[in-house]
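INFO batch 0412 | record 1 of 1 | parsing
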Amino acid sequence: DAYAASRAETMQNIESTIVELGGIFQQLAHMVKEQEEMVE
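INFO prediction complete | emitting tokens
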């Protein structure tokens, strides 16, 4: 079933995008924390 296959592929793409975004947010949080430490 082509529809089910393309749906599964789309879900995998969304999942990897979310994982990527999570990594970016972690980097941002780390940078913010480092800057706060520099200010003190």
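INFO post-check: The mean pLDDT is 96.
INFO record closed
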